[in-house]
Specification:
Elements (H helix, E strand, L loop, with lengths): L13 H13 L8 H12 L5 H14 L6 H22 L3 E2 L2 E2 L1 H4 L2 H17 L6 H28 L7 H26 L4 H28 L2 H4 L5 H4 L5 H9 L2 H12 L5 H14 L2 H18 L8 H15 L4
Antiparallel strand pairs: 1-2
Amino acid sequence: MFPLFLQKISDLDILQYQSDFLSYLASQKITREPKNLYEPIDYILQLGGKRIRPVLTLIASDIFSGDYKKALPAALAVEVFHNFTLVHDDIMDDAPLRRGHETVHEKWDINTGILSGDAMLILAYQYFENYPPIVFQKLAQLFSKTALEVCDGQQLDVDFETRNDVTIEEYIKMITLKTSVLVAAALKMGAIVAEANEEQAQHLYNYGLNLGIAFQLQDDYLDTFGDPKTFGKQVGGDIIENKKTFLYLKALEVSNKEDQEKLVTLYNVEQKNISEKITTVSTIFKDNKIPQYTQELIEYYTDKSFDSLSLLNISDTAKEGLRLFGKNLMSRKV
């Protein structure tokens, strides 16, 4: 279920979108033979999550055509692809938990996670076959571009783990590719299904692109300072994996020499006591007001996303709904 603050936003009935999406997902009967290939796919898709991306696809279709149900196949394609990236990311990060449950490679094994993830990518494309040729073509083109950008972003993320000269600008580029392009594409796919014109679809894409950056920054913040009971993932995971997030990079920029040296050492020399590493890094972040800096940057990109709303030829009510959706998304704890 969506958190209460996301259940009803203006005339955008988030609960109804989610309910219809989940019904459509259940109707697909993803589990089939061979079970060791498809059961992990069904497992990750049933773990829940916020379902933000598919809901955004339905919202976009509803805004431009008044009919969101025709966007259900595209919404499922987005969700299947997103979960495919999570399965493979969890393998690369050796993550034990996803949404508070065992990751696919932990529950089965690494080979199963790789192959099931590959199958999910192919399944995602198949859902576009529900649309007429011109819509199929536009969806597939956007999807292919986005999928490759996500891979680009993931590789940059991996590269950053062994680099000590990563800049904040590079980091923003990385999360734009790894995370926000899919949020933006989810919205634009809904506009494509609704047959909105390209200019309007692109304005909605830009709204999603900046909102996606803010979303990932909030995720980075929660990774260190979130409540493990509500966050659903291992808190401190980014610190364990030596990820050069905005929090780390900003701390290097504003902290004194002693804290800088501690951070560089902790992120480059293997630590035996992981719990102590997380505590020490978190303390350095707090002492240097990194939570405050992070929240300010989240607000900057959220406001930037709202600038695109003024360019959309949609009702004021729908614009306000998208604005509230963004604001509430950034105040989430999960």
